[in-house]
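Database export, one record per block. Field names are fixed; values are copied verbatim from the stored entry.
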Amino acid sequence: MPKIPTKAILDGDIIAYRIAFWAEANDPDNWVEPLENLIEEWLPNGIGPDDYVVALSCSRPDNFRRQHWPLYKNNREASYVPEQLPCIKHYLRNYYPSKLHDNVEADDLMGVYASSHKMIAVTIDKDLRGTKGWHYNPYKEDNPVYVDKNQAFRFFCQQWLMGDATDGIPGLWRVGPKKADKWLDSWDQKDWEKNIIELYTDEKYKPKLPSDLAMTDYDVALAMARCVKILEKQNYNLRTRKITPWQPKSG
């Protein structure tokens, strides 16, 4: 197991939303101190005030996943946004050590730094457990936990099978956690990718898609995988910011 990092990367999107809703309910003009308190609350034991960065997402239209699946998070466009959210994100960007890169999400930045063992990924979003590395949920764990390569791969395959309705990722038709786990338990791990792709061609399980989306079954399977797969160090170059989309080992 790699040594635990001495730095952390925090999910700035969730932090910003939490403070924006707090401001709306309590005091729309005095949210800086609650923001500072929340960030301090999220820091893992041993991580000091100079040892973290806040990750923020690009705009949804600029997200690289839209190139593979045009409906990615399209269902959120009409979602309610607290009035103070843009101001809070601007404040995080300008007054805190932060990272915001074109075309990628905060999740991706956390995934890259966690998988390279440079930082602890701090978030309450379970989806980050699809990346290897050190992780910390400040509301469920006393200390960071390590997710190894096999654990991360299984989580990714579960998500690939099920999709994620909250992000507009349909996944396989009516496949939930129990069926996903049953399949993965019954297959040899080396066959997981091949078997999942085959299911995306099965009339019983293939997603029900809008008629105007002209995509082959294979393209749909690949798009679903690339939507649920959080980038890791092999998928994203932090210096050049080049994205290498996930590709199955067989192709």
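Remark 1: The two ends are 30 Å apart (CA to CA).
Remark 2: Residues 19 and 35 are 6 Å apart (CA to CA).
End of record.
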